[in-house]
Amino acid sequence: MPFLLGDDVLLREYVRELAGRRIGIITNQSGVTSDKVSIVDALVAEPTVRVHALFGPEHGLRGDHSAGAYVPSYRDERTGLPVYSLYGPTLHPSPEMLAGIDLLLFDIQDVGARMYTFVSTMAYAMQSAAAHDIEFWVLDRPNPVGGEIVEGPVLEPRFSSFIGLYPIALRHGMTVGELAQLFNEHFGIGAKLRVIRMQGWRRSMIWPQTHLQWVKTSPNIPTWLTCFVYLCTGLVDDLGLNNGVGTMTPFFYAGAERFDADQFAQRLNFLALPGIAFEAAHWTPSAGYNVGKTFAGVRLNVTDPARFLPVHTAVELLAAARDLQSGVVRVRNERAVDIDWGTDAVRAQLFAGKTAVEITDSWRRSVDAFLPLRQKYVLYS
Q1: Model's pTM, two decimal places?
Q2: Cα–Cα distance for residue pair 320/340, rounded to 1 Å
Q3: The CATH number of 6-217 is which of 3.40.50.300, 3.40.50.2300, 3.40.50.12780, 3.40.50.12170?
Q4: Residue 56: enclosing H or E segment and its boundaries?
Q5: Element containing residue 153 per DSSP (H, E)
Q6: For residues 222 and 101, what is the distance between their CA atoms, to the nearest angstrom?
Q7: How far apart are CA 315 and CA 346, in angstroms?
Q8: Averaged over 216-239, what is the pLDDT?
Q9: For the chain, what are the domain ranges?
Q10: CB 334 within 8 Å of CB 122
């Protein structure tokens, strides 16, 4: 069976069902077909389809805004369509934005990490669609880090935020379509949801096996492999370790100023963690908050992404750095750390001197409870 994305399937099999509908499209530069045609361009070119408005997530419709940056609404010069920001004055589509729309399409490539905000944008848009009796279709896309491995911790509801709305595992191993079904049914959104499934995707696949060309999903996720290391070092920066954001290879580093890179690399390589090796490194960010500072630590070399356990590895990085040099692992903002992880247990255990294995074992029960719930909503074998 040839591999087809959800938007490929929509255009081949269901585009006639869009005739006469007033459509809003939630997308960005990653919302392209397998031939790299924008879903916006493809639907605007259909004579029977009426695209009413576009909606952009964090980083904007073109993906050119930095993380956390305010994204304004505007009118798209190429199509003449209004582009409403879902990362500006509001995170939810407002009644004014939705006026005249009877169908919302969601076509954005996710990275497989709970703290990446695109799935929260999807959930908020589904809530607004449900409130205004608007159909919501998700054009499904691959999980680039695969659909088999699940890593905790599972988010505790008191740490719910835009970087983690619902109690799911940090590495959930689900597609956006599967998450939409879980959010809609189990967590009670109640939208008129339809998932346009992919054809040919299997849970064992990571990105290269789809034979698709990666489109940068945000400024700091320039390659498919970055999705894996983002799930690792994206969790350590609020705990004192620099992760290389601001360099040409963001998230491929972990270290600190005036730190022993060689000892750190030796200690981590001694662990023989699956799918990953560590190389002593020094780096100086050329952009961002740490511009001009020089850090020492390790570069992450992912030797086997199918076996790599990035969340577990993040804990090993933090525990090793803590044990190697006092004061390197530190907290500036407890709430920021706990929201990233979805729990305060990791922070508390880390500073109580617990080993990495003890920390990761502590969330095993919650992951085991999440797995059968997840299984109810998977769409692919």
Answers
A1: 0.97
A2: 20
A3: 3.40.50.12170
A4: strand 50-56
A5: strand 151-154
A6: 33
A7: 8
A8: 97
A9: 6-217, 224-343
A10: no
